[in-house]
Amino acid sequence: MPAKGSDRDEQQALLSLIQKVEGEEWASTKKGWKLNSGVPVCEWEGIGCRISVNGGSTATITSINLDNQGLSATLTSELGSLKDLEELNLKGNLISGSIPQEVANLEKLFSLDLTNNQVSGPLPQWWGSFSLNKLFLAQNQLTGEFFHNIYSPHLQSMQEVRLENNKLVGTLDGTTIMQMQKIETISLSQNDFSGLIPGFQLGSLPGLKFLYLDNNEFVGPLPSQLAQSGKSSLEEIWVQSNSLSGTVPASYVRFDMLHDFFIDGNKLTGALPLQLCS
């Protein structure tokens, strides 16, 4: 027999997303999504569970996948009660309000995708999962600064962080960046970041492949330390439309895997190193 699904508390946590008339209209067209629908929660549209057999079948919610569903809602603190949640994908909906700290605290979260919504409020500085791999929050209205709490567990596990097209400000903290040793993609395009690019710290990240810092307010030179010997894995660097000055460092010829390098819209002078274009 199939597992009966999660308990009533988990169902109520999910139903906290159903808000106002718009939410009720959305739920009326989906399988499950009612407290007394008679449909096990693991069979609700967009819900994934892990089933275990320990003296009887039990199931816990591990994923919510409702991307591009026309869902109008705010994230609620009740979602933080889904302690086994690993994936939350609400990309391309009408999600507004802030990210509750209870959601950021989820200890098993592997992937969060809220891309292309109307999420606002400050970017949480503390994320409780040591396995958070993908954090996709692009195309929203988030405020505040890039991560600066060096003790946040997620820094050690993240491979992709996408925060482009928000309203983030401030400088990039090099000490925090140094904690992100598994990172492959950092996308901070089209915000209001300022200050110097922390080249030494970014250049020390062994797996960094894609660095997008364009359309911000970064100043100063392109850092030569970005291309450190033996650690030049970058394939794409986008720094166009900032206020960078000086010349392109000769050390950038070490980027033997680089295929996209955008630097227009700055105050740079001089010629590119010849080997960089070969």
Give a description of the structure.
The chain is built from five helices and 19 strands. Helices cover 10% and strands 26% of the residues. It is an alpha/beta fold and 278 residues long. The N terminus is likely disordered. The chain is elongated.
Summarize, please:
This protein is α/β, with parallel strands linked by helices. Helix content is 10%, strand content 26%. The protein is elongated, with a radius of gyration of 22 Å.
Shape: elongated
Radius of gyration: 22 Å
Number of DSSP-assigned strands: 19
Q: Which H/E pattern describes the elements?
A: HHEEEEEHEEEEEEHEEHEEEEEE
Low-confidence stretches: 1-6
Give the rounded overall mean pLDDT.
92
What separation lies between the terminal Cα atoms? 63 Å
Which percent range fits the helix content?
10-25%
User: Order of strands across the biggest sheet?
Assistant: 1-2-4-6-8-10-12-14-16-18
Number of helices: 5
Biggest sheet character:
10 strands, mixed
Structural class: alpha/beta
Strand content: 25-35%
